[in-house]
Amino acid sequence: MTILAATRAADTLLDSLHAVRGLSVALAAPLSDADSSAQSMPDASPAKWHLAHTTWFFETFVLDGLSGYRPFDDRFNYLFNSYYEAVGARHARHRRGLITRPSLEDVLAYRGHVDAALAQHWGDFDAGARSLIELGLNHEQQHQELLVTDILDLFAANPIEPALFPPAAAAPPPAPGGWARHAGGIHRIGHDGPGFGFDCEGPAHDVLVRPFALANTLVSNADWAAFIAAGGYSNPALWLSDGWAWVLREGIAAPLHWQESDGGWSSFTLSGRRAIDGAAPVTHISFYEADAFASWAGARLPTEAEWEVAAAGHDPAGGNQMDRAGPVHPVGSSSLFGGCWQWTASAFLPYPGFRPAAGAVGEYNGKFMNGQMVLKGASCATPRGSSRASVRNFFYPHMRWQFTGLRLAKDI
Fold this sequence. Notes:
10 helices; globular; alpha+beta; 12 strands
């Protein structure tokens, strides 16, 4: 790379740093200190913790050890480390809601301290440091989605069901239905540069795919209401064994946040409780529910390889994704990206030849390749521009507090 090209790349990265860091603060702007400190469940984290942890990432992996840099507060390494064993001890995840201090104001000051240091040392960063900054930005975009969905889960637990954002604009008309057919054969999937990719997205490799069809649209709320009405949650023949045990143990009878009344089904959203839009994609469902619905519909879930093959030619920045701090609500589109993450039938396992990144950041994905399922696409809370066909989101099969839905597949 020439000096001029390197300078332009550095300027672009600095612009991205300002934009990404600014969006995190804007998303938290409507929150009180109490809002930002509470934790609704062990799998969620307080908004204040997300703001601090993403800052801790830059301080720990980029700034630590630089001549002249002084940490904002030595205690923060313990408070805001997530799961990096190589970096030291940390506060238990399920107790993050007990961190009432530092305050939200203190955390915002921490962000300002680290941002100022990044700007001050910008000219000192070599290619390795800039690579870590790029990783940190993509990491923060993931936490922006988590910040939004964790607040949704927190507000849903509040009896007065407060709204974070005003109602979203009217949804567009539903996309045409039907199926898109895809030829079988040997296809290449996975990230193979140029551009950023998480370590778990590679190496790129060849897979054999049989001919298949993928639905043009996401499964909708109206489709799901029909599944409920047909007794989908009471028919064990539709469910995987672990899924049926989960239904019985947890008393599951509808997607998370759904309620039925004389007026029909409603769902809690970031704009408060609202009647469900039948044309919008169903969200907040587990892998178990997605698999049961696919069985009921006479179809199946796609594999991650099939989904990635089908995504060729689709704009990963298209569809219903998050552009700014404001109304976030799933709507349908003809894009494979946006609206909701889509469960696949594939377990989150290493690709052939996978090697974790060197150093402590190598703990980022590889150690979670056990017992989780892959989701593809993007959701209405995914920051636009952070999606790729090769992205492998992953959650345990019972989890459903994210904007998770499904798109059907079938053999041809």
